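Long-time lurker, first post. I've been practising inverse folding by hand and with some scripts of my own, and I keep getting stuck on stretches where the structure tokens seem ambiguous. Below is the full token string for one chain I'm working on. Before anyone asks, I'm not after the true native sequence, just a reasonable design that respects the backbone. If someone could post their per-position residues I'd love to compare against what I wrote down in my notebook.
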């Protein structure tokens, strides 16, 4: 009989039985026709049941038929216990869905290979060592002139590719007034060829774009951007796009699937790297360098050649350094050139969120373990209730392996149903989490298709979960002793010990989840409540750019127009807003001494900027309208403490390179680049800056700081745009945002971790509470006779309560104690994600313990009530 026929017979059991019965009756009929009586014919054939079973085994696959039968029985058991099964499936589904969602995000950001030819050959160049500030750091930024020298040094052995970061900039296609945002990436002309990419329309860069002597203002669109923005129109080739002051011609569209080399950021427009403003600047380290190393080439040889060229380039550049100590220069030159594989691409988002995603993965794994322990307890209780059934199966010949299979198949069905529920949850959860990684107007963009990687993970997770919560009950059920079980069971205390052990494990994991979640929530709170030194409420930041750099008087004129608008309280300008992720620092000298080893940070501002920001002056005065730089400066408290300790800094002077400044004011400390960083020494300079000829420098871009009356500052945005366009048509407003949005952008990671932590805390507590309730309820059921006897001889309510909850509460305390050790170890691992929070703080340790104890008490109440309501007479008569 063929395999496929035997396979099909497994799923047509009733029809197969009828066919076998008909065949047996045909044999009997043939014997009767030959002269035998019916009884002799049946006796000659043998036992009908044995014949039917032997015939079935020959006509189907016995192992598959047993699985089918176990699946049918398992489904009946699940339907029989609808409430308990639904609770188990939903809790598992929630945990499995969280695991799958976490995998989709981590895979998309860290592990999914780029859709290019041979991504395993790609490496990124980086330098690690001590920088000018004396801190150890890893940097992957390179200057394009250095890149050209390095690329020439390894030509024929490896290929170097220059790639800028994906930037969100203003672009215009139709007219200069029709401005929109797009993601732009500057790339080597050889990138498309090296990656083996083909055009969907037009052509791609071929390498000629890398010639600095012949700039080629061409652009290539990504397939995704082309279909979204232009609907896939073929006539996009030849159109012009203005970016900044440059106009580019669109020459083609890349093939489907490739959106750049930065996971988390999709590039819509690719531009030649030679068209970047910093392409000729030796001191502008703005681009990453990828290396394609073919098989058979030793990476160490490539690194050695690149390192030698880089060292020579930096030594030559260091000759022009001013205001730096020889030691700091030497530290900078001694940085080590390294490579690391980047088959999944390279982006700042990977570096920023790697540890946060790892922490999220650990949290979801702990929640999954809690759910598995919870369901294992449920199955253990059910296995105890089915002890007599299992004993009967053993008595009629079922082997241990058969019983293990029976329970595991039921566990597998529950895992499959949970996986289906978890898949629906993961489909929503993964995009939801990704949408909170970046600001709402520029969310992270990750490729998270449901492909073989995701389905393979989900399948492996389902098998693992089925084994985690089903194997122990299956082994325990298969080890039943028929004689003892049929008499009423052997050792109920043994079953309870297993369940109590699982409770302790649940509590341990739950404590770790609560403890780590508390650290994340406290970090977010501390960061959000950090003293600003200024008032962000009611403050608008308006970024504007003219076609050509303008003198400061033009910016002052526009500031005056803004001040005159209804609803505006005050207005001023600065090169960029505080906490805007842009920095400018240098080393200063005081008292005619050498440059300090501590860098000072700078910011150019207009008169009235301090008033608009509401930064208090502690001493001195604001800039006068005719103040220029170099000349005068206003410094913060940290600047005074660092460079003038114990002195009155007002009126003192300091030098930056060859420029001298006199301190005319001292202000309160404020954050500079980020909320996490400690407040640096900060000096404010007048935005009227003189060049070497003593003439005012024109300004390329500025940020208007506008203090608005009322509670809805963004309501004034249209009027601001209209007024600037009316006053100076050559100015473009590139962005209008509240200062609160900038602050929110500084706490995105912390907010996301706090949000996820609270979610996992609620889930963990629910699972732990349900698990505790199940164990206590089972305990009361098993000990009802003992409880009845104790009540009959005068036990009080408190005694019964202690009897029911005593062992469980001891397990809660033991699990919490183990959780403290695990939690403190986890805190050291996530220390870089915390801010001004100490894991050893008693408050952080006591709070999770209190929450777990309260949860345990609430979960125990129904069981205690049931126990104290036990009727001794009725219970003893029943037994």
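-- Answer (accepted) --
I ran through it position by position. Result:
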């Amino acid at each position: 009989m063929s395999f496929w026929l035997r396979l099909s017979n497994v799923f047509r059991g009733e029809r197969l039985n009828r066919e076998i019965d008909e065949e047996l009756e045909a044999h009997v009929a043939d014997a009767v026709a030959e002269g035998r009586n019916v009884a002799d014919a049946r006796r000659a054939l043998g036992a009908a049941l044995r014949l039917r079973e032997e015939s079935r085994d020959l006509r189907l696959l016995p192992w598959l038929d047993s699985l089918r039968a176990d699946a049918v029985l398992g489904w009946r058991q699940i339907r029989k216990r609808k409430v308990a099964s639904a609770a188990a499936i939903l809790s598992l589904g929630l945990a499995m869905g969280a695991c799958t969602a976490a995998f989709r995000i981590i895979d998309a950001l860290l592990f999914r290979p780029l859709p290019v030819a041979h991504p395993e050959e790609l490496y990124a160049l980086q330098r690690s060592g001590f920088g000018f500030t004396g801190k150890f750091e890893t940097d992957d930024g390179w200057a394009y002139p250095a890149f050209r020298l390095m690329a020439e040094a390894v030509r024929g052995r490896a290929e170097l590719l220059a790639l800028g970061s994906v930037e969100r900039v203003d672009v215009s296609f139709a007219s200069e007034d029709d401005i929109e945002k797009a993601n732009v990436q500057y790339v080597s002309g050889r990138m498309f060829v090296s990656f083996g990419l083909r055009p969907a329309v037009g052509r791609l860069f071929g390498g000629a774009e890398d010639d600095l002597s012949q700039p080629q203002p061409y652009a290539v669109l990504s397939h995704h951007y082309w279909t979204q923005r232009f609907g896939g129109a073929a006539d996009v080739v030849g159109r012009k796009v203005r970016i900044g002051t440059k106009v580019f011609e669109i020459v083609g569209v890349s093939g489907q699937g490739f959106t750049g080399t930065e996971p988390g950021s999709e590039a819509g427009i690719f531009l030649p790297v030679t068209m970047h403003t910093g392409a000729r600047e030796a001191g502008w380290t703005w681009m990453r360098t990828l290396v394609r190393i073919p098989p058979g080439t030793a990476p160490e040889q490539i690194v050695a050649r690149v390192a030698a060229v880089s060292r020579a380039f930096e030594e030559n550049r260091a000759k022009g350094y001013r205001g730096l100590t020889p030691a700091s220069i030497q530290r900078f030159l001694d940085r080590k050139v390294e490579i690391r594989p980047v088959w999944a691409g390279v982006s700042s988002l990977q570096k920023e969120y790697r540890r946060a995603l790892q922490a999220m993965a650990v949290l979801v794994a702990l929640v999954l373990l809690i759910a598995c322990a919870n369901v294992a307890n449920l199955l253990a209780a059910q296995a105890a209730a089915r002890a007599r059934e299992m004993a009967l199966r053993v008595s009629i010949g079922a082997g241990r392996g058969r019983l293990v299979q029976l329970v595991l198949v039921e566990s597998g069905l529950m895992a499959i149903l949970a996986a289906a529920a978890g898949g629906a949850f993961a489909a929503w959860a993964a995009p939801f989490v990704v949408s909170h990684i970046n600001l709402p107007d520029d969310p992270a963009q990750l490729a998270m298709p449901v492909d073989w990687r995701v389905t393979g993970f989900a399948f492996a997770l389902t098998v693992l979960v089925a084994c985690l919560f089903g194997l122990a009950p299956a082994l325990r059920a298969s080890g039943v002793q028929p004689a003892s079980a049929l008499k009423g069971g052997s050792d109920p205390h043994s079953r309870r010990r297993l369940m109590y052990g699982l409770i302790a494990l649940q509590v341990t994991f739950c404590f770790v989840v609560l403890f780590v979640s508390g650290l994340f929530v406290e970090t977010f709170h501390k960061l959000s409540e950090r003293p600003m030194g200024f008032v962000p409420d009611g403050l608008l930041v308006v970024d504007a750019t003219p076609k050509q750099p303008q003198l400061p008087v033009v910016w002052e004129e526009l500031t005056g127009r803004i001040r005159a608008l209804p609803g505006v309280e005050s207005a001023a300008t600065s090169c960029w807003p505080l906490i805007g992720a842009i920095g400018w620092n240098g080393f200063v000298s005081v008292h005619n001494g050498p440059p300090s080893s501590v860098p000072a940070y700078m910011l150019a501002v207009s008169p009235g900027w301090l008033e608009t920001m509401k930064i208090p002056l502690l001493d001195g005065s604001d800039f006068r309208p005719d103040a220029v730089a170099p000349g005068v400066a206003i410094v913060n408290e940290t600047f005074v403490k660092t460079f003038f300790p114990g002195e009155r800094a007002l009126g003192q002077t300091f030098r930056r390179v060859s420029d001298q400044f006199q301190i005319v004011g001292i202000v309160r400390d404020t954050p500079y680049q980020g909320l996490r960083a400690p407040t640096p020494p900060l000096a404010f300079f007048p935005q009227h800056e003189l060049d070497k000829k003593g003439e005012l420098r024109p300004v390329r871009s500025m940020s208007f700081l506008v203090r608005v009356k009322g509670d809805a500052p963004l309501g004034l945005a249209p009027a601001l745009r209209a007024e600037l366009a009316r006053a100076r048509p050559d100015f473009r407003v590139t962005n209008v945002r509240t200062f609160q949005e900038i602050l929110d952008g500084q706490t995105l990671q912390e907010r996301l971790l706090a949000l996820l932590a609270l979610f996992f805390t609620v889930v963990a507590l629910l699972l732990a509470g349900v698990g505790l309730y199940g164990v206590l309820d089972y305990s009361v059921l098993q000990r009802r006779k003992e409880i009845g006897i104790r009540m009959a001889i005068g036990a009080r309510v408190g005694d019964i309560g202690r009897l029911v909850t005593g062992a469980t509460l001891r397990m809660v305390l033991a699990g919490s104690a183990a959780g403290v050790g695990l939690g403190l170890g986890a805190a050291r691992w996530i220390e870089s994600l915390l801010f001004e929070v100490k894991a050893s703080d008693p408050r952080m340790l006591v709070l999770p313990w209190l929450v777990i104890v309260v949860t345990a008490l609430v979960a125990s109440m129904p069981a205690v009530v049931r126990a104290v309501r036990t009727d001794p007479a009725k219970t003893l008569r029943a037994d």
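A couple of notes from the structure itself: The radius of gyration is 37 Å. The chain has 27 helices and 24 strands. Happy to go over any region you disagree with.
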